[in-house]
Write a structure and sequence with these properties.
The protein is mainly α. The protein is 93% helix and 0% strand. It holds the Pfam family YohP.
């Protein structure tokens, strides 16, 4: 269960990071 939660948090963090990089590349 804990491993599943950690994987979910890691996945959300990874997606968020990609979105932020995409937005920054669009702005600059």
């Amino acid at each position: 269960m804990l491993k599943f939660i950690g994987g979910t948090v890691g996945f959300i963090f990874l997606v968020g990071l990609v979105v932020v990089i995409g937005i920054l590349m669009l702005i600059f």
